[in-house]
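User: Can you help me understand a structure? I only have the sequence.
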Amino acid sequence: MEENQTTVTEFILLGFCLSPRIQLVLFLLFSLFCTFTLLGNGVILGLICGNSRLHTPMYFFLSYLAIVDIAYVCNTVPQMLVNLLDPARPISFAGCMTQTFLFLAFAHTECLRLVVMSYDRFVAICHPLHYTIIMSWRVCTILAAGSWIFSFLLILVHVILILRLPFCGPHQINHFFCEILSVLKLACADTTLNKVVIFAASVFVLVGPLCLVLVSYTRILVAILRMQSGQGRRKAFSTCSSHLCVVGLFFGSAARRDLIDPA
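Assistant: Let's start by predicting it. Here is the structure, written out as tokens:
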């Protein structure tokens, strides 16, 4: 049976199976969103770098979050836009594995970065007198670098497990990018180990950080409610509101995806 199998060297991303006219509309729409995303995050980076008053740990982590968002877009959107114009254009096996690796690495990095940002807000509100000591630039650099290194090492395990699998057809991925579960469906071998590792990593990188974020904000809420000054409460809430919105969007969408297409 192995002799009749043909090794797959490239994949076709099916993307959106719609009429050419609708795909053209989607191309223009996603191009617009991509441009706004890049410009928005670019403006954030420019403002933080150009204003010395924003050279604080909170904006330091915010700038890294903007970099991750830019990397997200650059990793998945260009290939998706190409496929909208030319659905039959393939992506190489190496390119697909690279896209899978980078997408998961950026996702895990953003997840860990949100935990670090919640810890930063916790220290700022609950221990304001010791904030500069606890969140020193050395600590911030270690936390930032550690999230990158940990994420890339963890995703390297996923990629190594995928590379050991034979892919012998079909070579059509039912997605607009090389999403790991969609890629595993094309393997002509048992993928149980891969799915177990993906599930364990999801629990470790998604559920664990979410619990840490909830603990941080619970303690922040308690500290805010104990404040005597109404102006102090409003200021504390204002420093956390934007981060809470990002946390809700990220973990909400991640949880929704896992419920719809669990590993």
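Now, to help you interpret it: The longest helix spans residues 93-126. Residues 45 and 51 are 10 Å apart (CA to CA). Let me know which part you'd like to focus on.
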